[in-house]
Design a protein that fits this description.
InterPro entries: AAA+_ATPase, ABC_transporter-like_ATP-bd, ABC_transporter-like_CS, ABC_Transporter_VariousFunc, P-loop_NTPase. The protein has 341 residues and is α/β, with parallel strands linked by helices. It has 2 domains: 217 residues, Rossmann fold, CATH 3.40.50.300; 75 residues. Strand 7, helix 6 and strand 8 form a beta-alpha-beta unit. The C terminus is likely disordered.
């Protein structure tokens, strides 16, 4: 297990990480998300021992991340970590040899991973002759070439077409199924939601939300989406008199919530206090007082909505000059009132 405990890091007067704490289990794909400047890359470099920390500790299987441990880690940086004029095959074999593989094993691994990632026909080409997407595939091959026991990938899906995204997703799932902990950062939150076993949202230097996607979507008090055959004023009056908070449905008019003549769509917040009775029956009864209920379902937020609800995009870039981020409360904001454990 990879364990990050109370890691803090500042660049000058700017605090980038503040007591950052989380763990990733064997076989788990962990999505590490946050706005630009949140500290994701800084945290990853500290995990690898490439950047010093001010305080805290990082351990893997109970031991420190030393040179021997790094030999067993696959790392893919966000920026290109390849030699642009060097052929793909020689470059990957060189990286494999650096990890202690024999020449024959290095060549076999190069053949396997270039074929697996769809760049087998470009082995003899210099990296700079490849498209950005194919360069990204080669960079992933470099992280996998030595059969690592831990994967740390910084924006691995950046610049990839849908076919390459599927190939990379399948590869990461395969490694996780083999028991390898996989950590990757991404701004493609729909992809994170589909692929990851758990997600950590980084803001203000720490994890402000942590759990499986289902846990995050079900936590707090998701609102109910209502579609009622009634005038908007009539529906609002019936619901507010019953003690519910009513808001316009932001998805009204989309494919998820199409508009029809005479139908009013709203989102309704229900009481979330511990020990209160299930408000579903009361809500449905109030809606039926206004008209015929056409749709009635709890609207669980997607990861994109959760992220937007708690993270305010900072004004500066991340590396070496991290910006502060702020938590804010919105429709789902009550979920993140305290640090995730």
């Amino acid at each position: 297990m990879l364990s990050v405990e109370n890691i803090s890091k500042s660049f000058g007067s700017r605090k980038v990480l503040q007591n950052l704490t989380f763990a990733v289990r064997p076989g788990e794909i962990f999505g590490f998300v946050g706005s630009n400047g949140a500290g994701k890359t800084t945290a990853m470099r500290i995990m690898l021992g490439l950047l010093s920390k001010d305080s805290g500790q990082v351990t893997w299987n109970g031991g420190p991340i030393d040179f021997a441990a790094r030999q067993r880690i696959g790392y893919m940086p966000e920026e290109r970590g390849l030699y642009p004029k060097m052929p793909v095959d020689k470059q990957l074999m060189y990286f494999a040899r650096l990890h202690g593989m024999s020449p024959d094993a290095a060549r076999a691994a190069m053949e396997r991973w270039t074929d697996r990632l769809g760049v087998g026909s470009r082995q003899e080409d210099a990296v700079q002759k490849l498209s950005l997407g194919n360069q990204q595939r080669v960079q992933l091959a470099a992280a996998l070439i030595h059969d690592p026991e831990l994967l740390i990938l910084d924006e691995p899906f950046s610049g990839l077409d849908p076919v390459a995204v599927r190939t990379m997703s399948e590869t990461l799932r395969q490694k996780a199924d083999e028991g390898v902990p996989v950590i990757f950062s991404s701004h493609q939150l729909d992809l994170v939601e589909r692929l990851c076993d758990s997600v950590g949202i980084l803001a203000g230097g720490n994890i402000v939300a942590r759990g499986t996607v289902d846990e995050l979507r079900n936590a707090g008090n998701p609102p109910y989406a209502l579609a009622v055959r009634a005038a908007e004023a009539t529906l609002r009056t019936a619901l507010t008199q019953a003690g519910f908070t009513v808001q316009p449905d932001p998805l009204a008019g989309t494919s998820e919530a199409p508009l029809s003549a005479g139908i009013t769509r709203v989102l309704v917040e229900t009481p979330a206090a511990a020990g209160t009775a299930d408000p579903t029956a009361a809500l449905l009864n109030a809606a039926q007082q206004a008209g015929t209920v056409v749709e009635f379902a709890q609207r669980r937020p997607h990861l994109t909505e959760l992220f937007r609800d708690v993270v305010q995009v900072p004004s500066t870039e991340e590396e070496g000059d991290a910006a502060t981020t702020k938590k804010k409360r919105g429709l789902f904001g009550s979920l993140f009132g305290k640090k995730a454990k």
